Amino acid sequence: MNTALENGIETLKDQIDARVVSYLSSCVQCGICAEACHFYTSTKDPRYTPINKVEPLRKVWVQTHTFWGKLATSLGLRKPMSEGDLANWEELAYDGCTVCSRCSMVCPMGIDIAYMIRKVKEGLAAAGFVPKELQEAGKRALEFGSPMGLTAKSLHSAVTEQENEYGYKIPVDVEGADYLCLLSSNEVVSYPEFIGSLAKIFSQAKVSWTLSSEYFEATNSGVQMGNSKIAAELSGRVLAVAEKLKVKSVISPECGHAYTTIRWDAPNFLQRKLPFSVVHVTELLDQLREQGRIKIKQRFSDRVTYHDPCNISRRGGVINQPRNLISMIAADFKEMDDHGNMNWCCGGGGGVSANERADGLRQKAFNIKARQIRKTHADNIITSCSVCRMTLEEGLENKEMTQNVLGITEFIAMHME
Ligand code: SF4
Ligand code: SF4
User: Fold this and answer.
1) Which domain, by its residues, includes 394?
2) Within this chain, do residues 339 and 269 fall inside the same structural domain, yes or no?
3) For the whole model, what pTM was predicted?
4) 307-316, pLDDT tens digit by residue?
5) Is there a contact between 170 and 162 (Cβ–Cβ < 8 Å)?
6) Cα–chain-centroid distance for residue 346?
7) What is the number of the ligand 1 atom nearest to the C-alpha of 32?
8) Which ligand has the minimum distance to the alpha carbon of residue 37?
9) β-pairing, 404-407 with 179-181?
10) pLDDT tens-digit profile of 284-302?
C-alpha cells in the first residue's frame, strides 16, 4: 500500500467518533436523503445520493469496527480500499456536495450526513485527493493570508476606493474598537461596495469598528479542503489579530462558511474558548434596526426575494434577521417556495464554485434555484454571502435571466437617509 493511500485510510479511521458510529449503524438505507440534495435531484444519478458520499468512511468503519467486517477482511473476502475508490469519491465529495446540510434535515434517523462528508474530506485530503484549485487556495492562504493571494496593499486600495466612492472614513487597525470586521477576499476583489456600505451604515449608527490590515481574511481554506491543521492555523490568525486589537466582537462578513467556521468550528480547532463574541453582519445590522439606529429614506417598491445562504440560515440559524432588514425597506417582499432552513443551495458553496471541474454539474444543480426564482417574479434577489451572490449572478447569466443580485448590506446602504 502506498503512503498516500495509507495516510488517507489512517485519517479516515481517526475520524470515526461516537457520532459517526451511531449514524452509520442507524442508517436504514431508505434513500429519503436523495430527494433533498440538489445534485441528486437535478441529475437523478444515484451516485449523488447523500449517504453514498460517505462510503469511504463507512467502508473503513465496517472493516475496523464491526465483527463481520473484521472477519471478512481477515479472510480476504472484503476488497480493501484502493486509490481508485478515493479518486472516485474525490469527485463525489468535492464536486457533488456543497456541505449544505439539506439532506440532514430530512433523514428520518436524524443522521447529520454533512458532518460525515466533512470527515470524508479529511481522509481524501490526507491522501492528496483534493481538487487542485482548493489545494492552491490553501497554499496561498497560508503564504499570503488570502486564498486569492491578496495582501495588505490590496486591502488598502479597496479601502481608499470605497472611501472616495461613499465619502465615509473606513477605520483600519484601530486598537480598542468594539468590532473587528473580517472580509472575504472575494468581497475585496468582486464586491468592495460591501466595505463602503458598511462604513455608511456604521457611521450613521455610530458603531465603533475596524478592519485589520494584518489579517482580514474571513474564509477558511482548511475547511473547504477538509484539512483541520490548515483550518486551525487560519482560525488562529483571526484570534491573534482580534486579541492584538483588543476588540469585543468579530463580525463575520457576507460569507457563508466563514460564519460557521469562526463562530462554532474555531474553538474546536483551537481547543480554546474565543475571548470575543462572533456575529454575522446581518445579526448586527438587525440589532441596529431594532434600536432605531438605521434610518431609511423611502420604501423600495419593486418586488424583492431573498436567497438564504445554507451556512447562514440552515447551519447558522440566522433566518429572521435578514428578513426583518429587507422588510424594513421592501414594500413587496416575496419568499421563494422553499426558504429559511429548507432553502435550496445555490450550488456554489463548500468550495464547489472554485472547482472548475464541477462547473457543468453546478450549472445543472442551479436549475432548481432558477425555477424557485422564476416563481417569485421578483426582479431583485438579495443575499448575504458573496459566494452565493457570485453563483447566482453566473447561473442567471447562463440562463439568460435578468434579475439583479445584491448583497444585503449594500441594499440597506442604498436606501438609507
Ligand atoms: S435518509 Fe437517513 S436513513 Fe435514509 S438513507 Fe439517507 S442517511 Fe440513511
Ligand atoms: S450536504 Fe447538501 S450537497 Fe451535500 S449531500 Fe447533503 S444535500 Fe447534497
Assistant:
1) 296-414
2) no
3) 0.95
4) 999 999 999 9
5) yes
6) 11
7) 1
8) 2
9) unpaired
10) 999 999 999 999 998 999 9
